[in-house]
Structures are given as structure tokens and as C-alpha cells.
Amino acid sequence: MIVTTTINWLFACHVSDVPENGGVCVKFENEQVALFHFTRRNEWFATQNECPHRRQMVLSRGMIGAQGEEPKVACPFHKKTFSLKTGECLNGDECAIKTFPVKLVGEKVFIGMEAG
Amino acid sequence: MRIVIIGNGMVGYKFCEKLVSRTHPAQFQITVFGEEVRPAYDRVHLSEFFNGKSADDLSLAPSSWYADNNITLYLSDPVHRIDRHSKTVISHFGLVVPYDFLIIATGSAAFVPAISGVEKQGVFLYRTIEDLQMMRDWAPQARTGAVIGGGLLGLEAAKALIDLGVLETHVIEFAPRLMPRQIDSNGSSVLETRLRQLGISIHTNKGTEAIEGGQAISGLRFSDGSRLSVDMLVISAGIRPRDELAGAAGIKTGTRGGIVVNKHMQTSDPEIYAIGECALFDEMIYGLVAPGYDMAEVAISHILQGEKIFTGFDMSTKLKLIGNDVASFGDPFASGENVRTIVMEDSLQGIYKRLNISADGKTLLGGILVGEAGSYNMLLQTCKNKLVLPPDAGELIFGSRVAGGDQGAGVTALPEDAVICSCEGITKAQICSSVTGNGCETVEAIRKCTKAGTGCGGCIPMIKDLMVHAMHAEGKYIRNILCEHFQYSRQELYDLVKIHSYKTYDEVLDNLGTGHGCEACKPAVASVLASLWGEMILKKGNDTAQDSNDRFLANIQKGGTYSVVPRIPGGEITPDKLIVIGSIAKKYNLYTKITGGQRIDMFGAHLSDLPLIWEELIEAGFESGHAYGKALRTVKSCVGSTWCRFGLHDSVSYAIRVEERYRGLRAPHKIKSAVSGCVRECAEAQSKDFGIIATEKGWNLYVCGNGGSKPQHAKLLASDLDSDTCIRYIDRFLMFYIRTADPLTRTATWLNKMDGGIDYLRNVVVNDSLGMAQQWEAEMQSLVDSYECEWKVAVENPEVRKRFNHFINAPEEKDPTVQFTALREQKRAAEWK
Ligand code: SRM
Ligand SMILES: Cc1cc2nc3c(=O)[nH]c(=O)nc-3n(C[C@H](O)[C@H](O)[C@H](O)COP(=O)(O)OP(=O)(O)OC[C@H]3O[C@@H](n4cnc5c(N)ncnc54)[C@H](O)[C@@H]3O)c2cc1C
Ligand code: SF4
Ligand code: FES
């Protein structure tokens, strides 16, 4: 079976709205997405904003960094860390978080959400 | 081959884990029946459920793990019958599953003595997560609670009652003393005194005859005719192995319970094995998890035609009553002609230690530790491995003078096959080779690689020592480096940043580090930068390197709201300012509380309200209290000579002077101070990082005190100082600390690690032995001069202000997931998960 999914690119904000090497929270209807600008690596990432550990809407306020080459975010509450690429929990004990593709068009940042 | 496992507890799970790691998925068809509603969890750490761990946190593996490993898991479906004839098990819901090998891992149940009234509401057992959930739900209405049973588990349950907020806790023990199976009577009486100090009442020699009350418990009646009214009871009077299935199937069981097994863990039916707390080996039930894991290993070995056999297990234990360590190891009661005992008792501090030593003074046979069990691991290893004792064996309990020194030597002396982690059965050789062979150079890496330290966790300090030992042996210089991104200690980094005048995190990382940073080095470097240059911490480039609380200039609370703590120097506040706090709290719907630091905390502020609240506070003359920063917190004061009939000097004015001097100062950890007006010490100055107490002639300066989980009294640094000299000494002391301490190290810990201790520190600060005094005073002065309230800067800067919105694309909206509930006419954060 071939499953095709359509990605909707939703406008999030402007590049300058996001702090360097930090994140912001973007609202799409009822969904909260954490958007990060990893300026040092010139990369953008988007994940769910909710930390699965205690279900807190805070990952956008987390600190980003790297473990080896793996970019990651640490939750401000108990420092559980998640890969920004795959969403996998790097402490091995929480479930993974959702990640979303990010696209830049000029100064505008778009986040790709599955249509559904 | 079909393997069926009855019981999905700790040992049943371990059996599965070991089996799948040893065999090919196609080799066995594995089915597990569990009676409880959830997959196996960590019963050993059950009590942590009351300290915030959830059922998921305690879980040993999620349901998906079983599926991923081709294990069929039936939960909430206990096995009802074993049919040995057709070699099948029949479950409660009627599933019939055939086996080639059957593993019984049904554990044990709490033993409930025949007392009338055990069915009443408010009477609990202490075995499963459900038991604890029911206790938690009941506890809010209970004032007085009791535990029947003064053994290991009973005492843990008593501690749980205290944690649950039950005001009065009793322990009822039938025997004449506590923990009769583990410690001797002297140890029991020291323990009793300690527990009484914790607020637990102990009743020994008491037989419970009846539980009184209507539907719910109201009290206990004892055989001596006395009564005790309680509204909650936990029964922890021992365990009974769950052998009922085996018994009904005609498998041999012991007279006092337990499924009889041989050294291969086979029951009287060779195709059926029993492991864990339900198994009776050599007339003994092993009520600990480590022997159970060993049994799992042995059973698997036998099924796979290996050689391992079970030979009994050491029952050494250490109880986890916070601050009240109790441990016993080897033969704790050894006595007689061939045994010499060394006993140390300090009734003042509640410490009792006993070592049993062979008559020739060479080997340690066993011992007991009450009140302080820091040396437990080393003593246990010395005992188990029959290491030759030093000539003065008493040192082992009195502690040698050189702190830390002898621990390392101890590890070296251990034989290669010494079992370090008894839960997982990992030896010294395995740990060392994970360091040398697999390059594990952190405890975390060793845990992942070997599984050592993943059980009860008691061996972790020893794993750390072994790691250091193995790295040393390889000629590796162990440096106290920050993290994978910086090969420097905090002190080295501080000096380098200073020499090169680096001002931003990226600059420091580009020039002194590698990679892209992480949550360990970012705040540490940001703190060094703040201590050195005193610049506004949210300056672009350093803002996202701050710890989350620093980044938002407030402490994050449950639910994602923040607390607001304005500075109230010395605890002095005018009525007008009190009114301002009250009206702001009302306007923004904040919960208010007087803190332990003599000021007022307002909780529950939405991120986007923070700048608005601070604008109003600043307008009224308040400034940031740095409650979020690794910075000066409060300088507490007593009322002092202006009102107090004993006051020698004006402690409030001096406290305000000190607080205003050091406010905003960034340090490796938070710093606290206090000033008392006389020796009565109402401001508790001797529990602070630096504390000042008035004397007839001036001020006494104490340093390196700490509250927190390991309280420590401050030590006298200098006496009878005049006000200015005292400040100069504090300047030097703080700069020395800021320059040399490791990240997140309070002054007390810093001093504890300092060679030469307080005498050395006094030499540096008072006698200027390093010749740094002048420079440090000047550096401190420049930090004092550059102070500005960071909240003031933040609210005036639109770029910074923009960061205080929850949604970047909907700045006017608050996080809709934030929830509060009502509590005593105020609000509180909704409970998480
Ligand atoms: C509010 C307050 C409790 C209260 O309601 O009274 C409090 C609240 C917190 N304390 Fe505390 N501590 C408070 C007084 C204390 C005291 C008593 C004192 O200062 O006189 C102590 C023991 C004294 C000491 O520090 O030596 C204390 C020892 C701790 C510790 C343990 C520190 C240690 O060295 O072991 C922590 C954890 C840490 O800092 O790592 C901590 C951490 C915390 C944190 C920051 C936990 C956190 O990360 O969220 C809490 C933040 C609440 C907030 O958002 O404001 N708090 N805390 C007190 C604020 C005082 C103030 O006005 O600033
Ligand atoms: C509060 C507490 C603290 C403890 N602290 C420590 C400690 O510090 N150190 C230590 O070593 N040990 C400690 N223990 C003991 C340790 O938890 C046990 O030794 C360990 O759990 C035994 O594992 P087990 O698998 O044999 O039994 P269990 O973990 O009890 O598992 C048995 C499972 O089998 C299930 N079962 C029973 N009958 C059936 C059936 N017919 N069909 C299906 N399922 C069935 C039970 O419901 C249970 O889930 C503590 C125990 C408690 C309760
Ligand atoms: S410490 Fe001294 S001055 Fe302060 S309140 Fe107590 S008695 Fe009075
Ligand atoms: S809520 Fe994120 S780590 Fe605990």
C-alpha cells in the first residue's frame, strides 16, 4: 500500500522573531508547536511543545544544544532531553516527541503539518 | 519451545529481559500472565510514588517492550490453575496456554495477621501501586496513622505516612525492639531515638488485638488493654510467599509456605521452576530483589543447559529512610569466642556502629550501621571478599582523617570478581572493562553499558570510584571538566575567559570548546560571564545560554507559570509596600506566601504578565529579588538593637547594607546570608553561606553554612570585626568562591573539598596568603558599581520584552493549558499527570 500524506506549510513567524540558539512557541489552531533556530548550526527545527514527562507545554522554553552531533532540547522542568531531529528521548525513559519539517522563504518561517 | 511465566513482577520481568537478550526470537514462544493491571514496575522504589514519581516513572519497561520482543503479555488476568497433566495453565478469563517450561514468579503478598477489623476503611497494605494510590486518597482526612510492624518495610511505610502529611505517626511492633532481624538491640535503641526525633512514636512489645471503628477505622486495641486512636493503618507485618497455585497443583511447598526449589530453581516438577519471593531455597525465602534476579539467571541457565547454580545469597541490606541510614551486612550478630566486636556509639548524634571481626583481627565477619552508613558499600565489599583488615580496624567505623582518600584505596584492594552491583550481579572486572574497553567515562555510560547501578542504585558511589580508579590506571588524568564541549574545569575556564576578555557564550565556545553546547555548559559559562563582567544577563547572545529560570527572570512552576519575588532587604518592608504587593497580587490573581527567606513570593503568574507585574513593582520602588538566579538570595535579619532588649547592634541596618552590596552578584550557586543582633541568633546566621553575629566588640563572621538536604553549620572565620573590615572579608571570601568553585557547588561543599579546610580559607581571606585580597576587593567593587536591576532593564527593552509571550504568533493569548485549582481562598497549580 502506498500512503500519501499531504504536507500543509503553515506560516509561523519571521526569522527575527526567534531568538538565536533558542525557541518560541507557535500556535496553529489548537496545536502548540515549539520552533527552534539553532543559529550555530544554521538549522531550524520544530517539535511538539508539550514535554511528555509531565505533560507540560514548555519545550519551546527549553535549552538547545548537542550530544555529539545530535541536536537536542532539554526540558526546563526536569532536564529530560529530546533529539530535535528524530524526537527520540535521549535519556531513554520517556516517549518520543513529534517533530515537524521547517522551511524558510526569505524572512518567513513555515512549519509543515500533515493535512488531516 | 513454549515458556509460560506466571507473575509479571520484578523477578518475572527480569527473567524475560535476560531470556530475550540471550536467545533468538524464534527459539522460544514466551507468554506472561500478570495479575496486576500494569506491566512490572520497580517495587523496591515504591515509596518514591509519594515523592512525585508516577506509575510510569516506576515502570521497568512499557507494554511495547514486550510486544517488540515477541512476548505475549496478559495483564489483569491471573493464572487460575496449573494443569500439569496436559502441561497447560488456565487463566482467570479462561485462556488455556500450553507450556514446555513453566516459570512461577508470583512473589509474595503482605502477611495479614488474624486481627478483627482488618476489612475496615482506612486499613492498608504496602505492596502495590494500587495500595499506595488508595493510601494517598485516604491520607488527606487522616490526622493520626499507625503501622503494624517495625521491620524494614514497616519503617519505610511510617516514613511514607509522614510524607503524606499525616501529623502523628505510630509504629507498633510485637517484638521488644525494631528491626530485630537486621540489627542488635543497641542499634535498635539508637534507631528508636532517631525515629522519635523524626516525629514517629514507637510502641514495642505490643500485640494488636482488634481494629476498632464503624465502617472506617477509629483506633486500635492492644493485648495489654491499652488503646490508640488512629484514622489510618498500614499493615506491614511480614510477607507470605504466594505458593497457592503450586500447592493446588501438587507441587511441593514448605511447611511455612514457599515453593520448594533445588539449586537449579526447579520445583518438585522438573519442568516447572519457581523464582523470586515465592521460592523456598534451603528453607529460606529471600525477600530481596537481588537474590531474585540471581534466581532468574540460574533458571535460564538451566533451561539453556548452562552451568549456573544458586548457592544462597547475602542478605545485607541498607534501608532508605532519608537521613536515617540503617544497614546490616554479613553476619550482623556474630559473637562468641572467635569473634571480636568493635562498637561505636554516639548517642548525641544518634549513630551506632558495630563491626564483627575474626579473632585474629584479619577479616570482617559482618556489622551494623545506624544513623550513618556512608561506608556501607566498602564494608560490605571488605566482608564479602574477605579483604585483610588494616591493623587498626576501628578506623573503618571512626573514619580516617583524610577525607575521601581511603575510599579510593579500598576500591583498588577489591578482587576482580568482587560483585559491586548485586542487583544485576556486575563485578568489578566488568565495570573496569567497560571503562577501559568500551570507553565509558561517565557513570551514566557505565550504567547503560553494563546495567550496573540500575537496580536499587546503592552501588553508584562505588561505580564512580571504580571508574576513576580504572581511568587512573590507564594514565588518564581525571579532570573535573564541564561536559563534552569543554575540556576545562570551571576554575580553568574562569581564568581563561578573564584573560581573553570573552563576553559571549559563542565566543567562549568557539575559542575554548568544541561542538554546539548543551544544558550543562551553557548555564555554567553564562554564570562565569556574569560573575566576571556584571553585564545584564539577557544581553543578546547570552540570553539563550541562561538556565531556564534566569532566561525568564523568574522560577518556573508546575503548569508553566512563574513566581515573582521582589527583593525585601533584611526582611524590612513599609506598610505602603505591603499594600502594593497585595494589590498587585489581587490584580493578577497570584497566590501569595511569606517565604522562608523573609520575603513575599507571588506564584502563578502567566509568562506574558511578568513584565506588566514588574513594571508596577518597579514603579513602587521594588527591584528583582533574584530568586531565580545562582546569585545572592536573601540576607535575613533579626530585629536587632533598635527594638530588641538584648540587641547589641542594629542588625537590620547592617543586613540591608550587606544585601544591597551583593544583590545581583552571580556565583557558582546561590548564596544566602543573615545578620543576628546577638548570640541568641534569631536570624539563623550560622546556617548561611556567610553569617554575621553581633558581639560586644563588633561582628563575628561565619562562613560556609548550608541548609538544604545536608545541613551544615557555618564555621567561624574571624571575630570582633568592625563593620567595614567585615565587608572586606566577605568581598574576598565571595570572590575566592566565585573563582574556584565547581558549577552548582554551594560554599559548604566547596569548603568540604578544600585541602586544609577552614584554616586554609582563613589564611587566604584574613591573612591574604595568596596576595589576592586587593585585587578581589577591587573586582567586587566594580561588580557592585555596575549593578542594575535586571527586571528594570528587561521591561524597558522591547526586544527582551518580546520574549515574555507564550505564543510568538498570538502574543495577546495566554497558554490555554495552564490550570489552577482553589485552595484556602487562593489558587494553586493543578496537579500534574
Ligand atoms: C519560596 C521558598 C520556600 C518558601 O515558600 O518559603 C523556596 C522555594 C524554592 N527553593 Fe528553597 N525556597 C526558600 C527558602 C529556602 C531555604 C531557607 C532560607 O533561605 O532561609 C533553604 C535552606 C537554606 C539554604 O539554602 O542553605 C532552601 C533550600 C533550597 C535548596 C537546597 C539548597 C542546597 O544547598 O542543598 C534548593 C535546591 C537548589 O537550589 O538546588 C531550593 C530550591 C528552591 C526552588 C527554587 C525550587 C525550584 O527550582 O523551583 C523553589 C522556588 C520557588 C519559587 O519559585 O520562588 N531551595 N530554600 C523560599 C524562598 C526564600 C526567598 O525568599 O528567596
Ligand atoms: C515497599 C517495598 C520496599 C522494598 N524495598 C526493597 C529494597 O530496598 N531492597 C530489596 O532488595 N527489596 C525490596 N523490596 C522487596 C522487593 O520488592 C521484592 O523482593 C521483589 O519485588 C520480588 O520480586 P518478585 O517478582 O518475586 O515478586 P513481585 O514483585 O511481588 O511480583 C510478583 C507478581 O506476580 C503476580 N502474581 C501473583 N500470583 C499470580 C497469578 N496467579 N497469576 C499472575 N500473576 C500473579 C503478583 O500480582 C505480582 O505482580 C521491597 C518491597 C516493598 C513492597
Ligand atoms: S538575636 Fe538578639 S537582637 Fe536579635 S531578636 Fe534575638 S535577642 Fe534580639
Ligand atoms: S516535564 Fe519535561 S522533563 Fe519533566
Automatic annotation (TrEMBL), chain A:
Domain Rieske positions: 10-111
Keywords: 2Fe-2S, Heme, Iron, Iron-sulfur, Metal-binding, Nitrate assimilation, Oxidoreductase
Gene Ontology biological-process entries: nitrate assimilation
The keyword Iron-sulfur is assigned to this record: yes
Top-rank taxon: Bacteria
Gene3D superfamilies registered for this protein in UniProt: Rieske [2Fe-2S] iron-sulphur domain
InterPro entries named among the record's database cross-references: NasD-like, Rieske-like_NirD, Rieske_2Fe-2S, Rieske_2Fe-2S_sf
GO molecular function, one term: metal ion binding
Keyword Zinc-finger: no
NCBIfam families in the record: nirD_assim_sml
PANTHER family: NITRITE REDUCTASE (NADH) LARGE SUBUNIT
Protein name: Nitrite reductase
From TrEMBL, chain B:
GO molecular function per UniProt: 2 iron, 2 sulfur cluster binding; 4 iron, 4 sulfur cluster binding; flavin adenine dinucleotide binding; heme binding; metal ion binding; NADP binding; nitrite reductase activity
Domain NADH-rubredoxin oxidoreductase C-terminal: 316-385
Cofactor descriptive note: Binds 1 siroheme per subunit.
GO biological process: nitrate assimilation
Residues annotated for siroheme binding in this entry: C682
Pfam families assigned: Fer2_BFD, NIR_SIR, NIR_SIR_ferr, Pyr_redox_2, Rubredoxin_C
Domain Nitrite/Sulfite reductase ferredoxin-like: 557-619
Domain FAD/NAD(P)-binding: from-to ranges: 1-299
InterPro entries (alphabetical): BFD-like_2Fe2S-bd_dom, BFD-like_2Fe2S-bd_dom_sf, FAD/NAD-bd_sf, FAD/NAD-binding_dom, NasD-like, NiRdtase/SiRdtase_haem-b_fer, Nit/Sulf_reduc_fer-like_dom_sf, Nitri_red_NirB
Pathway(s) the chain acts in: Nitrogen metabolism; nitrate reduction (assimilation)
Cofactor(s) for this UniProt protein: [2Fe-2S] cluster; siroheme; FAD; [4Fe-4S] cluster
Domain Nitrite/sulphite reductase 4Fe-4S: 629-765
Domain called BFD-like [2Fe-2S]-binding: residue spans: 419-467
Keywords: 2Fe-2S, 4Fe-4S, FAD, Flavoprotein, Heme, Iron, Iron-sulfur, Metal-binding, Nitrate assimilation, Oxidoreductase
Binding site for [4Fe-4S] cluster: C638, C644, C678, C682
Family according to the record: Belongs to the nitrite and sulfite reductase 4Fe-4S domain family.
Record protein name field: Nitrite reductase
Annotated organism of origin: Flavihumibacter solisilvae
Lineage: Bacteria, Pseudomonadati, Bacteroidota, Chitinophagia, Chitinophagales
